[in-house]
Design goal:
metal ion binding, 4Fe4S_Fe-S-bd, 464 residues, 17 helices, alpha/beta, single chain, TAT_signal_bac_arc, Aldo/keto reductase, NAD(P)_OxRdtase_dom_sf, globular, 3-stranded antiparallel beta sheet
């Protein structure tokens, strides 16, 4: 691109106003991210966001100076497709968010061919291409989930298309996407038997990939086996799920984050953090937990505790957040401009908070949408997220003897019909289980659909 097409700092300051920026509410738009995330986690008081206080971490492998806040591009705002079929990314909103992020020091952007119905890479590339290439680091993934893309030809095609979509000649951080799903056999078919690891290592040698790593969801056995390839592959970084609940209390087949982090630190491999908010569940907490957090730091958001926890670990290079709305971005900028690391008492406090969170039996859905589309039209994330929301709000009362049963029953049923269209609700699940192999949290989705549907039918039939 010609230099004249870049956005200058002067134009930025004209657009944003000189000096620091003050938090304001953003316009509500549809998003490919979590419905629960639409409830803002912004700070309760207006505070100035400095332009030059972002905390940075240095990648000891290559001296990259990376912002501790990384932009996860899985949850860009969406608008109806003019063709009338589905949705597309709202490019104007993406441009505005990326402009604001870059001006306030964010320089790491993480995307994938699988995000936002396949539109994320193109939208991210279009927004970033207006800036000099040295102003940002771009991360994307070999998201060859479907067996049809496991072939060498299919995987290489996906790899080359990422360069085209992102409008770059070099990818700074390239990941094998979500290893662990399906066990080591699936990993071998996706990356080893087709020669893709060897191919990507050669691409790194040629300079088209600067750092090669993987993102992980799965069992300890798979993690250990893939990490053992370090001497052969030399993993430059690894992306793990880390937050103050998963640190010691990971759900399902997932591995506690303290183990993952310790193994990477032993090998001097930088960690990149995903899901610091557990798919929004650590920003939309039950009221008494919210009050507990706000009592400690009344001027800061509930979400800021989770981001401070993730960023306080020294081997973390950056913490990814899927910031759909401007208020999410602004709040996280406040947390990391600069980061105030946790002290020993804070760690104890958050472990106690995690223990309280475990008393709420939410389903570990992070709204990644890897399970979608459902061949039978079910809005799987919508169903699970509504259930979780009602659990946190105390609206999953199972006995008509409970004092608040009438209120909870009404709230659950009305909210269910409002958030999930009737034809896309859990009762349409036939149990085909095609979704299960794609779920990074190892949720038995058909079983949960049946359980939720049985609960809904029970509520409908209950005579009050």
């Amino acid at each position: 691109m010609k230099k004249s097409n870049y956005i200058s700092r002067r134009n930025f300051l004209k657009r944003l106003g000189a000096g620091a920026t003050t938090i304001t509410a953003a316009a509500a738009v549809s998003a490919c991210g979590s419905k629960s995330d639409k409830i803002s986690a912004s700070a309760s008081t207006k505070r100035e966001i400095p332009l030059d206080k972002m905390t940075y971490r240095t990648n000891h492998n290559n001296s990259d100076r990376v912002s501790i806040l990384g932009y996860g591009c899985m949850r860009w705002p969406m608008i109806p497709n003019p063709s009338g079929h589905g949705e597309i990314v709202n490019q104007e909103s993406v441009n505005r968010l990326i402009d604001f992020a870059l001006e306030h020091g964010v320089n790491y952007f993480d995307t994938s061919p699988a995000y936002c119905q396949g539109y994320s890479e193109g939208a991210t590339g279009e927004a970033l291409s207006r800036y000099p290439r040295e102003k940002y680091f771009i991360a994307t993934k070999l998201s060859n989930f479907a067996p049809s893309t496991w072939s060498r030809e299919g995987s290489i095609k996906m790899y080359h298309n990422s360069f085209k979509e992102l409008r770059v000649d070099v990818i700074d951080y390239y990941l094998l996407h979500s290893i662990g799903n399906g066990g080591i056999e699936t990993f071998n078919r996706r990356y080893v038997e087709n020669g893709m690891i060897d191919y990507l290592m050669k691409e790194r040698e040629a300079g088209r990939i600067r750092n090669l790593g993987f993102s992980f969801h799965g069992t300890k056995e798979v993690f250990d086996q893939v990490l053992a390839m370090h001497e052969q592959v030399h993993w430059d970084f690894v992306q793990i799920q880390l937050n103050y609940v998963d640190w010691r209390h990971a759900s399902g087949a997932n591995v506690n984050a303290d183990y993952l982090y310790a193994e990477l630190t032993k090998r001097n491999i930088p960690a990149i953090v995903m899901e610091p908010l557990l798919g929004g569940r650590l920003s939309n907490v039950p009221e008494h937990i919210m009050m507990r957090l706000k009592q400690q730091r009344p001027d800061e958001s509930v979400a800021s505790w989770a981001f401070r926890f993730a960023g306080s670990h020294e081997n973390v290079l950056t913490v990814l957040s899927g910031m759909t709305y401007m208020e999410h971005l602004q709040d996280n900028l406040l947390t990391y401009s600069p980061l105030v690391p946790l002290n020993e008492q804070d760690y104890i406090f958050l472990e106690e908070t995690a223990q309280l969170m475990l008393q709420y039996p939410t389903i570990p859905c992070n709204d990644c949408k890897y399970c979608m589309p459902c061949p039978y039209g079910i809005d799987i994330p919508g169903v699970l997220l509504h259930y979780n929301k009602c659990v946190n709000e105390g609206n999953v009362s199972r006995s008509s003897q409970d004092e608040n049963y009438r209120k909870a029953r009404r709230a659950f049923l009305i909210g269910y019909d409002r958030s999930v269209p009737r034809l896309r609700q859990a009762d349409h699940c036939i149990g085909c289980a095609q979704c299960n192999e794609h779920c990074p949290q190892s949720i038995d989705i058909p079983a949960e659909m049946q359980r939720i549907n049985n609960f809904v039918e029970q509520l409908k039939q209950q005579t009050l």
